[in-house]
Amino acid sequence: IHTPYLLHLAASVLVFACVQVEENALQRGCDRARPRLVASLYEESRKTRTSLQNLRTTRNAVAKAVQSCKSDDEREALVKQGKTLKAQITAYEEELRALQARLDSEAVHIPNSTHPDAPLENPHVLHEHGTKPSFSFTPRDHVDILESLNMLDLEAGSDVAGPKFAYCKGDLVLLEVALQQLCLSRARTAGFTLVSTPDIVKRAVVDGCGFHPRDDQHSQIYSLSAEAVDAQHAVSVAKAARSDTAQQEREHLCLSGTAEIPLAGMHMDQILEENALPLRLAAVGRCFRTEAGAGGRDSRGLFRVHQFSKVELFSFCAAKDSDTVMWELVDFQKRLYADLGLHYQVIDMPPHDLGHPAYRKIDIEAWMPGRGAYGEVSSTSNCTDF
Protein backbone atom coordinates (compact mmCIF):
# COMPACT_ATOMS: atom_id res chain seq x y z
CA ILE A 1 0.00 0.00 0.00
CA HIS A 2 1.42 3.36 -1.01
CA THR A 3 2.25 5.87 1.73
CA PRO A 4 0.06 8.66 0.19
CA TYR A 5 -2.95 6.30 0.44
CA LEU A 6 -2.15 5.51 4.06
CA LEU A 7 -1.95 9.21 4.86
CA HIS A 8 -5.28 9.79 3.12
CA LEU A 9 -6.83 6.87 5.03
CA ALA A 10 -5.50 8.22 8.35
CA ALA A 11 -6.89 11.68 7.55
CA SER A 12 -10.29 10.17 6.66
CA VAL A 13 -10.40 8.24 9.94
CA LEU A 14 -9.49 11.42 11.84
CA VAL A 15 -12.28 13.40 10.13
CA PHE A 16 -14.80 10.62 10.88
CA ALA A 17 -13.70 10.53 14.52
CA CYS A 18 -14.00 14.31 14.77
CA VAL A 19 -17.53 14.15 13.38
CA GLN A 20 -18.48 11.57 16.02
CA VAL A 21 -16.95 13.68 18.78
CA GLU A 22 -18.76 16.77 17.48
CA GLU A 23 -22.10 14.97 17.46
CA ASN A 24 -21.54 13.63 20.97
CA ALA A 25 -20.57 17.09 22.28
CA LEU A 26 -23.65 18.62 20.63
CA GLN A 27 -25.92 16.03 22.28
CA ARG A 28 -24.36 16.85 25.63
CA GLY A 29 -24.72 20.62 25.25
CA CYS A 30 -20.97 21.23 25.05
CA ASP A 31 -21.09 23.99 22.46
CA ARG A 32 -17.49 25.04 23.04
CA ALA A 33 -16.03 21.67 22.03
CA ARG A 34 -13.96 21.96 18.83
CA PRO A 35 -12.45 18.54 18.16
CA ARG A 36 -11.11 19.44 14.71
CA LEU A 37 -9.14 22.32 16.21
CA VAL A 38 -7.89 20.04 19.01
CA ALA A 39 -6.76 17.45 16.45
CA SER A 40 -5.01 20.16 14.43
CA LEU A 41 -3.28 21.61 17.49
CA TYR A 42 -2.22 18.13 18.61
CA GLU A 43 -0.68 17.39 15.21
CA GLU A 44 1.07 20.76 15.17
CA SER A 45 2.45 20.24 18.67
CA ARG A 46 3.58 16.71 17.73
CA LYS A 47 5.54 18.03 14.75
CA THR A 48 7.02 20.84 16.82
CA ARG A 49 8.06 18.41 19.54
CA THR A 50 9.72 16.15 16.93
CA SER A 51 11.58 19.11 15.44
CA LEU A 52 12.66 20.20 18.91
CA GLN A 53 13.94 16.72 19.73
CA ASN A 54 15.92 16.66 16.45
CA LEU A 55 17.49 20.03 17.28
CA ARG A 56 18.45 18.81 20.76
CA THR A 57 20.02 15.69 19.27
CA THR A 58 22.01 17.82 16.84
CA ARG A 59 23.08 20.19 19.64
CA ASN A 60 24.34 17.25 21.71
CA ALA A 61 26.30 15.93 18.73
CA VAL A 62 27.82 19.37 18.13
CA ALA A 63 28.75 19.72 21.82
CA LYS A 64 30.45 16.32 21.68
CA ALA A 65 32.27 17.26 18.47
CA VAL A 66 33.61 20.46 20.07
CA GLN A 67 35.41 18.37 22.66
CA SER A 68 37.23 16.33 20.03
CA CYS A 69 37.90 18.94 17.31
CA LYS A 70 41.55 19.39 16.31
CA SER A 71 41.70 22.96 14.99
CA ASP A 72 40.66 26.39 16.27
CA ASP A 73 38.75 27.13 13.06
CA GLU A 74 36.75 23.93 13.41
CA ARG A 75 36.08 24.64 17.10
CA GLU A 76 34.93 28.21 16.31
CA ALA A 77 32.56 26.97 13.61
CA LEU A 78 31.08 24.36 15.92
CA VAL A 79 30.65 26.84 18.77
CA LYS A 80 28.87 29.21 16.39
CA GLN A 81 26.63 26.37 15.23
CA GLY A 82 25.92 25.49 18.87
CA LYS A 83 24.81 29.05 19.64
CA THR A 84 22.53 29.03 16.61
CA LEU A 85 21.04 25.72 17.70
CA LYS A 86 20.54 27.04 21.25
CA ALA A 87 18.56 30.02 19.92
CA GLN A 88 16.48 27.73 17.69
CA ILE A 89 15.78 25.36 20.58
CA THR A 90 14.66 28.27 22.78
CA ALA A 91 12.30 29.48 20.06
CA TYR A 92 10.85 25.99 19.54
CA GLU A 93 10.43 25.50 23.30
CA GLU A 94 8.45 28.73 23.55
CA GLU A 95 6.36 27.74 20.54
CA LEU A 96 5.68 24.30 22.03
CA ARG A 97 4.64 25.80 25.38
CA ALA A 98 2.21 28.13 23.63
CA LEU A 99 0.82 25.28 21.53
CA GLN A 100 0.43 23.02 24.57
CA ALA A 101 -1.34 25.75 26.53
CA ARG A 102 -3.76 26.35 23.67
CA LEU A 103 -4.26 22.61 23.16
CA ASP A 104 -5.03 22.13 26.86
CA SER A 105 -7.47 25.05 26.92
CA GLU A 106 -9.38 23.62 23.95
CA ALA A 107 -9.25 19.94 24.91
CA VAL A 108 -10.95 20.50 28.29
CA HIS A 109 -14.18 21.39 26.49
CA ILE A 110 -14.49 17.93 24.92
CA PRO A 111 -16.61 15.58 27.08
CA ASN A 112 -16.31 11.85 27.48
CA SER A 113 -18.03 9.64 24.91
CA THR A 114 -21.53 8.38 25.72
CA HIS A 115 -22.69 4.81 26.33
CA PRO A 116 -24.69 3.56 23.31
CA ASP A 117 -27.53 2.35 25.56
CA ALA A 118 -28.07 5.74 27.20
CA PRO A 119 -31.43 7.34 26.26
CA LEU A 120 -31.02 10.05 23.64
CA GLU A 121 -33.48 12.67 24.88
CA ASN A 122 -35.46 11.95 28.03
CA PRO A 123 -34.49 10.15 31.26
CA HIS A 124 -35.56 6.52 31.20
CA VAL A 125 -36.95 4.82 34.34
CA LEU A 126 -35.25 1.43 34.66
CA HIS A 127 -36.73 0.31 37.98
CA GLU A 128 -39.22 1.49 40.57
CA HIS A 129 -39.29 0.38 44.19
CA GLY A 130 -42.37 0.59 46.38
CA THR A 131 -45.30 2.96 45.97
CA LYS A 132 -45.92 6.61 46.79
CA PRO A 133 -47.02 6.99 50.41
CA SER A 134 -50.51 8.42 50.95
CA PHE A 135 -51.55 10.74 53.77
CA SER A 136 -54.85 11.91 55.23
CA PHE A 137 -53.39 15.44 55.37
CA THR A 138 -51.29 17.73 53.19
CA PRO A 139 -47.62 16.88 53.83
CA ARG A 140 -45.41 19.72 55.00
CA ASP A 141 -42.03 20.24 53.41
CA HIS A 142 -38.74 19.74 55.25
CA VAL A 143 -38.25 23.45 55.99
CA ASP A 144 -41.59 23.82 57.78
CA ILE A 145 -41.05 20.62 59.77
CA LEU A 146 -37.44 21.29 60.77
CA GLU A 147 -37.96 24.94 61.68
CA SER A 148 -40.97 24.06 63.79
CA LEU A 149 -38.78 21.55 65.68
CA ASN A 150 -35.92 24.08 66.00
CA MET A 151 -33.58 21.85 64.00
CA LEU A 152 -32.85 24.20 61.09
CA ASP A 153 -31.77 27.86 61.02
CA LEU A 154 -31.47 29.24 57.51
CA GLU A 155 -31.50 32.87 58.63
CA ALA A 156 -28.44 32.48 60.86
CA GLY A 157 -26.64 30.61 58.09
CA SER A 158 -27.32 33.46 55.70
CA ASP A 159 -26.18 36.07 58.24
CA VAL A 160 -22.91 34.26 58.91
CA ALA A 161 -21.94 32.88 55.48
CA GLY A 162 -24.45 34.24 52.96
CA PRO A 163 -27.47 32.77 51.15
CA LYS A 164 -27.78 28.99 50.81
CA PHE A 165 -25.87 28.17 53.99
CA ALA A 166 -27.62 26.65 57.00
CA TYR A 167 -27.25 25.67 60.63
CA CYS A 168 -28.50 22.15 61.37
CA LYS A 169 -29.20 21.48 65.07
CA GLY A 170 -30.25 18.87 67.56
CA ASP A 171 -31.59 15.55 66.33
CA LEU A 172 -31.09 16.61 62.70
CA VAL A 173 -27.32 16.51 63.29
CA LEU A 174 -27.63 13.06 64.85
CA LEU A 175 -29.73 11.92 61.88
CA GLU A 176 -27.07 13.09 59.43
CA VAL A 177 -24.30 11.35 61.35
CA ALA A 178 -26.41 8.18 61.68
CA LEU A 179 -27.01 8.03 57.93
CA GLN A 180 -23.31 8.51 57.27
CA GLN A 181 -22.47 5.78 59.75
CA LEU A 182 -24.99 3.43 58.14
CA CYS A 183 -23.54 4.02 54.68
CA LEU A 184 -19.93 3.64 55.82
CA SER A 185 -20.70 0.50 57.81
CA ARG A 186 -22.38 -1.11 54.81
CA ALA A 187 -19.59 0.03 52.51
CA ARG A 188 -16.95 -1.51 54.75
CA THR A 189 -18.89 -4.78 54.87
CA ALA A 190 -19.06 -4.70 51.05
CA GLY A 191 -15.26 -4.48 50.81
CA PHE A 192 -14.72 -0.73 50.54
CA THR A 193 -11.74 0.87 52.25
CA LEU A 194 -12.80 3.87 54.34
CA VAL A 195 -10.90 7.07 53.58
CA SER A 196 -10.77 10.54 55.15
CA THR A 197 -10.01 12.96 52.31
CA PRO A 198 -8.70 16.55 52.07
CA ASP A 199 -11.34 19.21 51.48
CA ILE A 200 -8.83 21.38 49.60
CA VAL A 201 -7.37 20.13 46.32
CA LYS A 202 -5.11 21.50 43.62
CA ARG A 203 -6.73 22.98 40.53
CA ALA A 204 -4.79 20.48 38.42
CA VAL A 205 -6.55 17.60 40.21
CA VAL A 206 -9.97 19.19 39.62
CA ASP A 207 -9.11 19.67 35.95
CA GLY A 208 -7.77 16.14 35.72
CA CYS A 209 -11.12 14.79 36.91
CA GLY A 210 -12.85 16.65 34.09
CA PHE A 211 -14.91 19.04 36.21
CA HIS A 212 -15.40 21.77 33.64
CA PRO A 213 -18.43 24.02 33.21
CA ARG A 214 -20.17 24.24 29.87
CA ASP A 215 -19.41 27.97 29.97
CA ASP A 216 -17.13 30.29 31.95
CA GLN A 217 -19.98 31.76 34.00
CA HIS A 218 -21.29 28.56 35.59
CA SER A 219 -18.34 26.96 37.36
CA GLN A 220 -19.38 24.98 40.45
CA ILE A 221 -15.89 25.15 41.98
CA TYR A 222 -14.79 27.55 44.71
CA SER A 223 -11.23 28.74 43.99
CA LEU A 224 -9.09 29.87 46.91
CA SER A 225 -7.03 33.02 46.52
CA ALA A 226 -3.52 33.20 47.94
CA GLU A 227 -4.87 35.51 50.63
CA ALA A 228 -7.44 32.90 51.69
CA VAL A 229 -4.76 30.26 52.02
CA ASP A 230 -2.52 32.69 53.89
CA ALA A 231 -5.24 33.18 56.49
CA GLN A 232 -5.49 29.42 57.06
CA HIS A 233 -1.77 28.60 56.96
CA ALA A 234 -0.07 31.80 58.08
CA VAL A 235 3.07 30.23 59.53
CA SER A 236 3.83 27.66 56.82
CA VAL A 237 2.88 30.05 54.04
CA ALA A 238 5.22 32.73 55.38
CA LYS A 239 8.10 30.29 54.85
CA ALA A 240 6.81 28.95 51.54
CA ALA A 241 6.22 32.44 50.10
CA ARG A 242 9.93 32.65 49.27
CA SER A 243 9.43 29.83 46.77
CA ASP A 244 7.91 30.58 43.37
CA THR A 245 6.64 27.00 43.16
CA ALA A 246 4.91 27.24 46.53
CA GLN A 247 3.40 30.58 45.55
CA GLN A 248 2.06 29.10 42.32
CA GLU A 249 0.55 26.12 44.13
CA ARG A 250 -1.12 28.39 46.70
CA GLU A 251 -2.79 30.36 43.93
CA HIS A 252 -4.30 27.22 42.37
CA LEU A 253 -6.14 25.58 45.24
CA CYS A 254 -9.86 24.81 45.31
CA LEU A 255 -12.51 23.65 47.74
CA SER A 256 -13.54 20.15 46.77
CA GLY A 257 -17.03 19.95 45.29
CA THR A 258 -17.19 16.21 46.01
CA ALA A 259 -14.99 13.57 47.66
CA GLU A 260 -14.82 12.00 44.21
CA ILE A 261 -12.07 14.51 43.34
CA PRO A 262 -9.57 13.73 46.14
CA LEU A 263 -10.40 10.00 45.88
CA ALA A 264 -9.58 10.04 42.16
CA GLY A 265 -6.40 11.98 42.91
CA MET A 266 -5.19 9.44 45.49
CA HIS A 267 -3.65 7.28 42.77
CA MET A 268 -2.95 9.81 40.04
CA ASP A 269 0.29 9.19 38.12
CA GLN A 270 0.42 5.66 39.50
CA ILE A 271 0.23 2.27 37.79
CA LEU A 272 -2.19 -0.11 39.50
CA GLU A 273 -1.78 -3.85 39.00
CA GLU A 274 -4.89 -5.29 37.36
CA ASN A 275 -4.95 -8.28 39.68
CA ALA A 276 -5.40 -5.83 42.61
CA LEU A 277 -8.53 -4.33 41.06
CA PRO A 278 -11.20 -3.29 41.68
CA LEU A 279 -9.93 -0.91 44.32
CA ARG A 280 -13.01 0.20 46.29
CA LEU A 281 -12.91 3.39 48.37
CA ALA A 282 -15.56 5.11 50.50
CA ALA A 283 -15.40 8.56 52.09
CA VAL A 284 -17.53 11.16 53.81
CA GLY A 285 -16.72 14.40 52.05
CA ARG A 286 -17.55 18.02 52.73
CA CYS A 287 -18.84 19.33 49.42
CA PHE A 288 -18.56 23.00 48.45
CA ARG A 289 -20.38 24.22 45.34
CA THR A 290 -21.14 27.67 44.00
CA GLU A 291 -24.39 26.41 42.44
CA ALA A 292 -23.89 28.99 39.71
CA GLY A 293 -26.59 28.91 37.06
CA ALA A 294 -29.06 27.16 39.35
CA GLY A 295 -31.68 29.88 39.07
CA GLY A 296 -35.20 28.67 38.41
CA ARG A 297 -34.68 25.26 39.98
CA ASP A 298 -36.29 24.16 43.20
CA SER A 299 -33.73 25.28 45.76
CA ARG A 300 -35.79 25.82 48.91
CA GLY A 301 -34.22 24.96 52.24
CA LEU A 302 -31.50 22.32 52.09
CA PHE A 303 -31.71 21.82 48.33
CA ARG A 304 -28.81 23.15 46.22
CA VAL A 305 -26.92 24.63 49.19
CA HIS A 306 -23.29 25.72 48.95
CA GLN A 307 -21.99 23.29 51.57
CA PHE A 308 -23.12 19.77 52.49
CA SER A 309 -21.79 16.35 53.41
CA LYS A 310 -21.99 13.29 51.18
CA VAL A 311 -20.85 9.68 51.32
CA GLU A 312 -18.87 8.85 48.17
CA LEU A 313 -18.29 5.34 46.81
CA PHE A 314 -15.44 5.17 44.30
CA SER A 315 -13.92 2.25 42.40
CA PHE A 316 -10.76 1.93 40.32
CA CYS A 317 -11.26 -1.02 37.99
CA ALA A 318 -10.15 -2.50 34.67
CA ALA A 319 -11.83 -0.96 31.63
CA LYS A 320 -13.55 -4.23 30.73
CA ASP A 321 -15.19 -4.34 34.16
CA SER A 322 -16.43 -0.76 34.40
CA ASP A 323 -20.05 -1.50 33.47
CA THR A 324 -20.23 -4.36 35.96
CA VAL A 325 -18.72 -2.25 38.74
CA MET A 326 -21.13 0.61 38.01
CA TRP A 327 -24.16 -1.68 38.38
CA GLU A 328 -22.72 -3.08 41.60
CA LEU A 329 -22.67 0.46 42.99
CA VAL A 330 -26.25 1.01 41.84
CA ASP A 331 -27.36 -2.23 43.52
CA PHE A 332 -25.65 -1.16 46.76
CA GLN A 333 -27.68 2.05 46.75
CA LYS A 334 -30.93 0.32 45.82
CA ARG A 335 -30.65 -1.99 48.82
CA LEU A 336 -29.84 0.92 51.10
CA TYR A 337 -32.86 3.01 50.06
CA ALA A 338 -35.16 0.00 50.13
CA ASP A 339 -34.12 -0.72 53.72
CA LEU A 340 -34.75 2.92 54.60
CA GLY A 341 -38.32 2.47 53.39
CA LEU A 342 -38.09 4.94 50.52
CA HIS A 343 -40.13 4.83 47.35
CA TYR A 344 -37.66 5.51 44.54
CA GLN A 345 -36.95 5.28 40.83
CA VAL A 346 -33.71 4.23 39.13
CA ILE A 347 -33.17 6.44 36.08
CA ASP A 348 -30.83 6.17 33.09
CA MET A 349 -29.86 9.75 32.24
CA PRO A 350 -29.61 11.17 28.67
CA PRO A 351 -26.48 12.83 27.24
CA HIS A 352 -27.48 16.42 28.05
CA ASP A 353 -27.69 15.50 31.76
CA LEU A 354 -24.21 13.97 31.91
CA GLY A 355 -21.23 15.79 33.37
CA HIS A 356 -18.04 15.99 31.30
CA PRO A 357 -16.44 12.83 32.80
CA ALA A 358 -19.50 10.57 32.67
CA TYR A 359 -19.82 7.84 30.03
CA ARG A 360 -23.11 6.78 31.58
CA LYS A 361 -25.02 8.07 34.60
CA ILE A 362 -27.65 6.31 36.68
CA ASP A 363 -29.59 8.47 39.14
CA ILE A 364 -31.84 7.36 41.96
CA GLU A 365 -34.70 9.70 42.79
CA ALA A 366 -36.84 9.26 45.88
CA TRP A 367 -40.42 10.46 46.26
CA MET A 368 -40.54 13.51 48.52
CA PRO A 369 -44.10 14.13 49.75
CA GLY A 370 -43.38 17.67 50.97
CA ARG A 371 -42.28 18.66 47.48
CA GLY A 372 -44.85 16.55 45.70
CA ALA A 373 -42.11 15.37 43.37
CA TYR A 374 -39.15 13.03 43.02
CA GLY A 375 -35.74 14.31 44.07
CA GLU A 376 -32.24 12.97 43.43
CA VAL A 377 -30.73 11.12 46.40
CA SER A 378 -27.76 9.56 44.62
CA SER A 379 -26.01 9.45 41.28
CA THR A 380 -23.64 6.82 39.86
CA SER A 381 -21.36 7.57 36.92
CA ASN A 382 -19.14 5.31 34.86
CA CYS A 383 -16.30 7.69 33.88
CA THR A 384 -14.21 5.08 32.00
CA ASP A 385 -10.63 6.38 31.64
CA PHE A 386 -11.63 10.02 31.15
Summarize the entry for a quick read.
With 386 residues, the protein is of the alpha+beta class. Strands 1-10-11-12 form a four-stranded antiparallel sheet, with helices on one face. A three-stranded mixed sheet has the order 4-8-9. A three-stranded antiparallel sheet has the order 5-7-6.
Largest sheet: 4 strands, antiparallel
Rg for CA atoms: 27 Å
Helix content: 40-55%
Unreliable spans: none
Q: Which series of helices and strands comes N to C?
A: HHHEHEHEHEEHEHHHEHEEHEEE
Find the structural class using helix and strand composition. alpha+beta
Which strands sit side by side, in order, in the main sheet? 1-10-11-12
Name the overall outline. elongated
N-to-C span: 35 Å
**Per DSSP, what share of the residues sits in E-state strands of 2 or more residues?**
15-25%
Count the DSSP helices.
Answer: 12
Task: Report the average pLDDT across residues.
Answer: 88
Counted beta strands: 12
Describe the overall structure.
- By secondary structure, the chain is α+β, with helices and mostly antiparallel strands.
- The chain has helices at residues 3-27, 35-68, 72-107, 142-148, 154-161, 171-189, 203-208, 226-232, 234-240, 244-250, 260-265, 322-339; strands spanning 124-129, 152-153, 167-168, 193-195, 200-202, 222-224, 253-255, 279-288, 307-316, 344-348, 360-368, 373-382.
- 47% of the residues lie in helices and 17% in strands.
- The strands form four sheets. A four-stranded antiparallel β-sheet has the order 1-10-11-12, with helices on one face. The chain has a three-stranded mixed β-sheet with strand order 4-8-9.
- Helix 2 runs antiparallel to helix 3.
